[in-house]
């Protein structure tokens, strides 16, 4: 059962981290380079990001639940590895929820204040200034979430690679 739980844990995290990587390095740059307007690209990227957040929150909840079960079944001497994974994944979930329910809605308000096209207003327009600040924050927080996810994958790979005690 422990192997099945660990596999579920790994799949949940890899789906989330893979989605973040695909979004940041494939989808967003491609949308902005191929689509005819920045507004259209932004609409597609924003919608995709909202869906990625939902996927991340589901994967994160699954990961946290499975990690909690594994922690409760593990001998005391190996519980530390689950604690760090749980902590990192918990931070990922909280950061993703913050972006989904605070930052992205505020960016949509700014887009509305710019008549739906933030790139059509001057760079000193209040909506644009606020949008750009939120966009920068979003990029930083998403990058942090990705780094935390890679940290979790690294911790899991150490166990799978045999460099940690396998007493669990």
Automatic annotation (TrEMBL):
InterPro entries: TMEM205-like. Residues 13-107 form the TMEM205-like domain. It is found in: Membrane. The keyword NADP does not apply. Keywords: Membrane, Transmembrane, Transmembrane helix. The chain crosses the membrane at residues 7-32, 52-72, 84-101. Its main location: membrane. Pfam families: DUF4149. GO terms for cellular component: membrane. The keyword Phosphoprotein does not apply. This is TMEM205-like domain-containing protein. It comes from Granulicella tundricola (strain ATCC BAA-1859 / DSM 23138 / MP5ACTX9).
């Amino acid at each position: 059962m422990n192997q099945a739980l660990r596999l579920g844990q790994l799949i949940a995290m890899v789906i989330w981290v893979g989605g973040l990587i695909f979004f940041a390095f494939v989808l967003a740059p491609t949308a902005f380079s191929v689509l005819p307007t920045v507004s259209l690209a932004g609409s597609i990227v924003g919608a995709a990001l909202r869906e990625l957040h939902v996927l991340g929150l589901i994967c994160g909840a699954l990961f946290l639940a499975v990690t909690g079960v594994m922690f409760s079944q593990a001998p005391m001497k190996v519980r530390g590895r689950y604690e760090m994974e749980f902590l990192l994944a918990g931070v990922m979930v909280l950061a993703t929820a913050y972006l989904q329910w605070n930052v992205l809605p505020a960016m949509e308000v700014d887009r509305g204040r710019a008549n739906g096209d933030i790139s059509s207003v001057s760079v000193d327009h209040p909506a644009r200034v606020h949008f750009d600040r939120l966009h920068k924050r979003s990029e930083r927080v998403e990058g942090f979430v990705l780094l935390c996810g890679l940290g979790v994958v690294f911790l899991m790979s150490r166990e799978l690679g045999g460099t940690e005690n396998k007493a669990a």
